């Protein structure tokens, strides 16, 4: 990941803002109460965390990424924004993430994953680990690329080839995994297919 993002990180936010749709809606849906914790797995450059910190000034905010290069960029941008005292960053592998080991926290009120599952091989483990670390009443929010099956075939092939170039694979099994975890852990599931199947948005909530 460090090799992949060594140079991309400098233009990541500018180039991704036009096709990583759904991030703003996810952030608006988080709605943590004052003092509650918000964790992003795969925080990248920290753009999302900055938006969360500004929107929810009384939340306790955490972020992890496996790429030290991305975390370096995140720390710099968060510091420039004057948010370094409010956002806690640490390196971690999302597939075996432990809140206790990383932040000395066993549960989080909100966990979100924004366009990261499609870049992680064992992505199912990430979702399962996240569910297990939700606090009572907490919710897991996931936004990522959808199947794009409502797009013209040529456009779909071209877009998927573009994603593959960046080692990105849309997770077509996301809805099935979310439903299985909802059944297993007695969670409420909301699953939306947005922007003509360009984006999938899932919310798993613990009662």
Layout of secondary structure:
Layout: H1 2-5, H2 12-16, H3 23-30, E1 37-41, H4 47-55, E2 60-65, H5 68-80, E3 87-91, H6 99-103, E4 108-114, H7 123-132, E5 134-145, H8 153-165, H9 174-185, E6 187-194, E7 199-206
Parallel strand pairs: 1-2, 1-4, 2-3, 4-5
Antiparallel strand pairs: 5-7, 6-7
Return the CATH topology.
Rossmann fold
**Helix/strand order, N-terminal first:** HHHEHEHEHEHEHHEE
Number of helices: 9
Whole-number count of domains:
1
Structural class determined from secondary elements: alpha/beta
Q: Nearest-angstrom radius of gyration?
A: 16 Å
CATH architecture label: 3-Layer(aba) Sandwich
What would the average pLDDT be, to the nearest integer?
90
Q: The biggest beta sheet, please?
A: 7 strands, mixed
Number of strands: 7
Instruction: Assign the CATH class.
Output: Alpha Beta
- How many angstroms separate the termini? 36 Å
| Low-confidence spans | 4-15
The amount of beta strand, in percent, is: 15-25%
Q: Please give the share of residues in helix.
A: 25-40%
Which strand order do you get reading across the main beta sheet?
3-2-1-4-5-7-6
